[in-house]
Amino acid sequence: MIAEKPSVGRDIAKVLGCSKAGNGFMEGKDYVVTWALGHLVELSDPESYGEQWKTWNMETLPMMPQKLEIQVIKKTGKQYQTVKTQMYRKDVGQIIIATDAGREGELVARWIIQKAGVKKPMKRLWISSVTDKAIRQGFAHLKDAGEYQKLYEAAVARAEADWLVGLNATRALTVKHNAQLSCGRVQTPTLAIIAGREAQIRGFKPQPYYSLKVKGNGIWFQWRSGQNHTTTDSREEIARISDKVRNSSGVVEDVKKKQQKSYAPLLYDLTSLQQDANRLYGFSAKQTLDYMQRLYEHYKVVTYPRTDSRYLTQDLVETLPERIRACRGGIYGPVCAKLLKSSVKGNKSFVDDKKVSDHHAIIPTEQGISLSELEYGERKIYELVVSRFLAVLLPPCEYEQTEVTVLCQGERFTARGKIVRHPGWQEIRSLQKEEGAFQDEPEEDELWDKGRKEEVLEQMPEFSRGQKILFGEGSISEGKTKPPLPFTEATLLAAMENPVKYMESADKSLKKTLGETGGLGTVATRADIIEKLFHSFMLEKRDQYIHLTSKGRQVLELAPRGLTSPELTAKWEQELSDIACGRAKKKDFEAKIRSYTADIVKDIAASSKTYRHDNLTGKKCPECGKLMLEVNHKNGRMLVCQDRECGYRKTLSKITNARCPQCHKKMELIGDGEQRRFTCACGYREKLSAFEKRKKESGGGVSKKDVNRYMNKMRQEAKEPVNNAFADALAKIKL
């Protein structure tokens, strides 16, 4: 049996009674369970097809092997050999594919089997969770692997299309402009989304607006127009209304009281967790995924992280009490104790088998842990998972909402109040606020700030219809509409997940397909895509906001038009779905892709557009002597050789976690050797040696060991080639 990951393999092995541990497998009386490490086999590098593609030049493009081959991934080659050995055992009569239930999971297993050349009968275990019950039920209903052949063909078609289009377009751009340029079906539309937002910001013209509040019976009432707006663009109008109602009596026209409930947010999938972690703690999507992987694989305290579901399956409900017990450490202990006093139930708000495909939402496991064992980032991510898990188990927050409407001189004014009767899940929010770990949720779409939000009072006097209210002096507020905010990693992840509103096409079927298939990239790859865009210097960060670099903007101009829109992904997904369902043939899709690839290479070669380095320095590369480029990396600045064949780079500075003693912002570490020093935007300067001494004397901060570890990381990053002819990074595109 082949599982996709070690943790899943061990879960299955436990249920099957496979207790004998081998190197990369588990064995029992009737079964041998082994596993991949994600993909163990991938499409072969272009260089493996012959001498013609070992060097990059336009004359050998497009690269169109008659048949795309597969190869073993070197860094996981040992585990591949383990899996292959188990499959060839004489006492193994059939292979059970137990990889993730989905297109990519099918590809993981089938490529391993194909590369190994095994011809034994195959069965398919298709489960969406790895509880003991789900595994047993899955084994009771094993499917013939042939039923999933079309799904496998769709997976191969997607992988081959990305290879053909992505590698050919990247090589063509790079060779044409002699610069380290890349494009692809996912990364280039992501750049386009950011470019669109920046264009909105540049083209935005602020408009003034005015609002009015007047005080009566000790509270402020907000003016509302006939269209129920709280602002107007006319200063004269708002001044006239203020004068009209000043020192006038109004009458309470209406008093509305409603008993309301608010429910906890849905459980986390990976994307929503990455968004909150970025918003609350500034963690990058990649950092959050790395922390989650460690919590999942090493500490075993959270479930599988790379999920796109925010629901649980019914078979998990019986495990909830044990999972609550595992969360009793830290600030949520009292909440856990309260939940365990009564029967823990699952309801449709977070338990729905139909809304779980490959993996259920992220929740804690039954494994407890002392929070002191976790590093800062690990602890924060674990606490987010725990807090969201406990929140959905608590009852809704119940509150009374009051709205008082006053009519004065023909103008309408309102005041609103809210009294919480039963906090319910908001108890979690209160605990988070006490810890300083919670900020109010942002608007779904922070595009236009039309004015201040209407104040909601927590204490409000009693009012009755017909009651007289004497208004005093009014307070006029003036503001201007604001442009869209630049993307943060959190909002960019949301845009990649739901890119429909950034599509120019009016084709509703394409938009529907893109919405149903999860947008640009997958929940597992978006973090890597964003990181790749930073590392290739097409994106940079200013504070928490993401901006295109000159390189990123030029790539959008130079890239084939079809690769800059999410529409290509939508069209592919429609055709891949047809292949998986047997409505279309893989060979027909492949023929289209090969024709499209030839066209984009031809267009790039014929283009009269040019690429211009606008960040050249006067410093020469020590390897080849050409002038170097200064680039803003995600976490600092570095010098990079302009020659794509060279790839030399040197770190100039790094944004650290060390805080400025004056303004408390993160400081930059610059220089070499004894001259290394911390600098801050506020003007503060401090040598590294002085910093270490100060921290040692204060008994806290960064240890010498931490600094050395950090400097080793810097040196390692400086050694990594930016491009490496893109052979290593881009030949292994997984979008």
Task: Describe the protein's architecture and organization.
- Helix 9 packs across helix 12 (376-393) and helix 15 packs across helix 18.
- A seven-stranded mixed beta sheet has the order 2-3-4-1-7-8-9. Strands 19-20-21-22-23-24-25 form a seven-stranded antiparallel beta sheet.
- Strand 20 (627-633) and strand 21 form a beta hairpin.
- It has 22 helices and 25 strands.
- It folds into four domains: 2-141, 3-Layer(aba) Sandwich (Rossmann fold), CATH 3.40.50.140; 160-202 and 486-606, Topoisomerase I, domain 2 (Orthogonal Bundle); 270-397, Topoisomerase I, domain 4; 616-730, no CATH class.
- Mean pLDDT is 87; it is low at 441-452 and 717-735.
- The chain is globular.
- It has 735 residues and is α+β, with helices and mostly antiparallel strands.
